[in-house]
Design goal:
The protein has six helices and seven strands, in the order E-H-H-E-E-H-H-E-E-H-E-E-H. By secondary structure, it is α/β, with parallel strands linked by helices. Strands 1-4-6 form a three-stranded parallel beta sheet, sandwiched between helices. The chain has a two-stranded antiparallel ribbon with strand order 2-3. A two-stranded parallel ribbon has the order 5-7. Strand 2 and strand 3 form a beta hairpin.
Length: about 160
């Protein structure tokens, strides 16, 4: 099950660094830390803050050049892809990956969940994620998909 999948690790770090920059700008930090500075710190072995948690240098370094497609490997399997978007269409890059997996024998079900893709930028006040419609939709889609694949046919 892939919730809001990023196709490569660099996309995660790009969003994390952007979130940190936005937070610093919102907090009126005199000189907000940019992506290049954060990457330099990580290259030197320092941890940096991003998306409300610490990103360790080893994670950043070991993620270089990694992609979801490569990590999935060649063994066909069922895949539920749940991108979060305001659009009703699957992003072209996700559609292309889903098509390649299908051609390789994967059973890919791609369903769009309506919502804010960069959910961590909505606001800085804590709220119970389980009450958000987008979260409830993700859980409903996921549990329905899992139950359909794990329920014994005689139980149906």
């Amino acid at each position: 099950v892939l919730w809001a999948p990023l196709l490569d690790a660099s996309g995660f770090f790009k969003e994390a660094f952007r979130s940190q920059l936005i937070t610093e700008q919102k907090d009126a930090v005199a000189k907000p830390t940019g992506r290049k500075e954060l990457e330099s710190r990580l290259a030197r072995g320092e941890a940096v803050e991003g998306v409300a948690h610490s990103i360790q240098a080893r994670l950043f370094q070991s993620s270089d050049g990694r992609s979801l497609e490569a990590e999935m490997g060649p063994a066909p399997r069922p895949v539920l892809m749940l991108p979060i978007s305001h659009s009703t269409n699957l992003r072209p890059d996700l559609s292309a990956v889903a098509d390649r997996w299908r051609a390789a024998g994967f059973d890919v079900d791609a369903r769009i969940v309506r919502g804010d893709e960069t959910w961590w930028l909505i606001n800085d006040r804590w709220h119970d994620e389980s009450t958000r419609p987008m979260t409830r939709h993700l859980i409903k889609e996921t549990t329905g998909w899992l139950l359909a694949r794990t329920t014994d046919q005689e139980d149906a």
